[in-house]
Specification:
By secondary structure, the protein is α+β, with helices and mostly antiparallel strands. Helices cover 49% and strands 19% of the residues. A hairpin with a 3-residue loop joins strand 2 and strand 3.
Length: 250
């Protein structure tokens, strides 16, 4: 070794290295420091949450028993309120169903009464009856007998000549050239549309001494046609009673 060779740089002391690391940290050291900070924050948060969730941790046994009794009473009150609400719900549901059923039944009865009273159109199986009167000798009393026979056989709706709805209040009178029905003059041939069981109605017309025989007695003819769907479109305007009033509480 010559005199010109120099000695190597002496190693830094631990204190110097620590100071250098604090003043000039590396990327790895920064990452480790950040990770430690996150872990410390999570630990502090967990401790605080644990302290809040254990509000009863410092209570005495008697206090805990009292608190438990209070919670049990509150739970019982909640259960009772839930049961009451469920009973109210069921009652309202039942009342609603009963009200709906009552309204449906009332609507059905209203429709039935409307057909019987002639205020509603109707259609269904029945007969078309055509009565010819070439000599103009067909009498009202024979027509009334035929109408009553049809009613007794279960006729539900009738109209005559497509102009007059026949109901219980319909009036019939002899008139010049025809028959006056509810103030309207109807001329032959007379067509009666009737809704009901076709077989039963036809049997009532063919009864000996009945409708067909009466027409023949007046030198007329009767043609009866059974139909699957008879349409009755003529309606009546309901009238208000002058003397009758509804019974109270009935």
């Amino acid at each position: 070794m010559t005199d010109t060779d120099t000695d190597p740089t002496p190693a830094a002391s631990p204190l110097t290295r620590l100071r250098r690391s604090l003043l000039h940290p590396s990327r790895a050291q920064l990452g480790v420091a950040a990770l430690l900070g996150v872990l410390m924050f999570a630990a502090v948060t967990q401790v605080r949450l644990y302290g809040q969730s254990n509000a009863y941790s410092g209570l005495r046994q008697s206090d805990l028993v009292q608190a438990l009794n209070g919670l049990s009473a509150a739970s019982a009150r909640s259960d009772a309120e839930i049961s009451q609400l469920e009973r109210t719900r069921d009652a309202l549901r039942n009342n609603s169903e009963q009200r709906t059923a009552a309204l449906a039944q009332a609507q059905k009865e209203l429709t039935t009464l409307g057909i019987l009273a002639g205020t509603l159109p109707a259609h269904g199986p029945g007969l078309e009856i055509v009565v010819s009167d070439p000599k103009g000798q067909y009498r009202v009393n024979h027509l009334l007998d035929g109408i009553e026979a049809l009613r007794d056989a279960g006729a539900e709706a009738m109209q005559m000549n497509g102009q007059v709805r026949i109901v219980a209040q319909t009036s019939f009178e002899d008139a010049e050239g025809g028959i006056d029905v509810d103030g309207r003059l109807l001329t032959p041939p007379y067509t009666i549309d009737v809704i009901g069981d076709p077989t039963t109605l036809a049997t009532a017309l063919n009864f000996p001494g009945g409708f067909k025989d009466d027409v023949a007695l007046d030198e007329g003819t009767t043609k009866v046609t059974r139909k699957k769907d008879v349409e009755i479109n003529v309606t009546r305007t309901p009238t208000n009673p002058h003397y009758a009033t509804p019974q109270v509480n009935q």
